[in-house]
Structures are given as structure tokens and as C-alpha cells.
Amino acid sequence: MRARTKRLWGVGVAAALLIGAVALATVALRQHADLFYTPGLIAEKGLPDAGKRVRVGGWVQEGSLVYGEGADMTFLIEDASARTVTVSYTGIVPDLFREGEGVVATGRFDEQGAFTAESILAKHDENYEPRELKKAGQATS
């Protein structure tokens, strides 16, 4: 084979490999992408398809956290639109999870519109201050 033909075959094989890698990445990302909804967006556009894995985010509404049997709990997620989504969850929540704080719940809506979370992520602001420094700051002021 001539050098030109070898180069052409090399470019063709490299292009085929690149197209295959992009196709695999696209399929993998599409299967594992979780859409993020807020209560206001759900009220505006309607509930996502039943059984589809989604993330619902906002703040845990004050006074809405109710503990059930064992590790069961329900709470409301609210956002700036004053809409809420009721979340039921069974499991251990992160240490930063509490009323009035940010939360992202990953789970599914059922046919009746109830949201059951599979995992809970607690959000916090970027202004971290250790408890020891907070106590020291309160003592001096």
C-alpha cells in the first residue's frame, strides 16, 4: 500500500473510534442524567412522568418535618414561589439536613403525584464557619 492509502485508513479508523466514543458517552449520559425540578417549576409545567427519576430541590419548610416509624420521615420542600412538594424518605439523612436549610431529594413521583426520595443531599452556603469560631465570636460581641 502507498503512504497516502495508509494515512487515509488511519484517519478513517480514528474517525470511527471517535464517533463510537461520542455515541457511547451520549447514551451513558442520557441514561444517568437526573433532571432538577423546583416546586415552582413543577406547578408551572406539571408533574414529570410517573416512575421517572428526578431531583427536587429547595428548602425544607419550617415545621414540616414529621418522623414516622423507624427511619421514615416526611417533609415539605418549598422555593421562592411559595409552592411545596411533599417528600417521603426512609433512611439516614445527612448531618446538615434540618428545617429551613437547602435540600436536593432524588427519587420518583408515583401515579398519584406523591414523591418518594431515594437519597437526600443537604445543601449549605459557602460561608462555612466551625462551631468553635462561632462560639468564640459570640463570646466577644
TrEMBL record:
Residues 1-7 are cytoplasmic. One of its GO terms (molecular function) is metal ion binding. Heme binds at residues 124, 128. The keyword NAD does not apply. InterPro entries: CcmE, CcmE-like_sf, NA-bd_OB-fold. It is found in: Cell inner membrane; Cell membrane. It is a single-pass type II membrane protein. Keywords: Cell membrane, Cytochrome c-type biogenesis, Heme, Iron, Membrane, Metal-binding, Signal-anchor, Transmembrane, Transmembrane helix. One of its GO terms (biological process) is cytochrome complex assembly. One of its GO terms (cellular component) is plasma membrane. The keyword Nucleus does not apply. Heme chaperone required for the biogenesis of c-type cytochromes. Transiently binds heme delivered by CcmC and transfers the heme to apo-cytochromes in a process facilitated by CcmF and CcmH. Belongs to the CcmE/CycJ family. PANTHER family: CYTOCHROME C-TYPE BIOGENESIS PROTEIN CCME HOMOLOG, MITOCHONDRIAL. This is Cytochrome c-type biogenesis protein CcmE. The lineage of its organism: Bacteria, Pseudomonadati, Pseudomonadota, Alphaproteobacteria, Hyphomonadales. The gene is ccmE.
